[in-house]
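Message: Just now I want nothing more than another pair of eyes on a protein record. I am handing you a single protein, as its sequence and its fold in token form. As I understand it, each token names a local backbone shape. Take your time, and here it is.
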Amino acid sequence: MQERRPIAYFSKALGVRNVTKSAYEKEFMAVVLAIQHWGPYLIGRRFIVSTDQKSLKQLLQERIVTAEQQNWAAKLLGFDFEIVYKPGRLNRGADALSRATEGGELCAVTTCLQWKDEEVLKEEFNQDPHLQKIVADLQNDVNSRLGFVYKHGVLMYEGRLVISRKSVLIPTLLKEFHATPQGGHSGFYRTYRRLASNVYWVGMKNAIQEYVRSCDVCQRQKYLASSPGGLLQPLPVPDRIWEDVSMKQSYTAKTIAEVFVKEVVRLHGIPLSIVFGDIFEVLYS
């Protein structure tokens, strides 16, 4: 305090081990912690410690009985101070942090969130034939579309607002959840989880993946987490035709399986190896 006015406060929560200590020990520890905290300003000067624990007034004259108290007292060596008893009712400033009054109890809060572009979303929703087909199915049978709920003119999917996959707001949403300071240019999965917890549109996973993959900032600033590719080496020369088969990764698994069975296995038998581009190689023994 300076001119009977507090100029700074210091407070420290009690640990589990110290909660059960007596009031005297707690006040003793508070004096030690406070003096240590303001030590650079107090060392070399005489100062007064005001406390509402009357027994601490004789701290410097009484006998220290426990090892822990001796440890605390040793930390006060080198300081020139006097302990003065001051009743709690006259020393209210000392309890400003530890006995802060709580605010009034709030019984209920009612919030109503509204989309800034609500009318745009409604118009896009009404013009989307795919979403209108889902609404028509739900109106005939509420269980016809698993996960979808249509209520009060709003279509929800697993608790998330459904918007048109051609919505003009999708680029804005992708930017807000990825490229802003709040988005933090996170990776695909984190961006997808945040965005998918709010809205849903058909093909949103592919849209988010493509947006994150094409982000210029991410490409410039982030390193590749995948392992570096190995040295390019030629494939071994087969001894006979159809011994090795190479495939492109752009085809689906179903298409590859059908062509493989009809055009290769049926006519030439099972090959010794199958090479899928530069991804991996399957060997048959």
Remarks:
- The longest strand covers residues 46-51.
- The chain is about 35% helix and 15% strand.
- Confidence is low (pLDDT under 50) at residues 278-285.
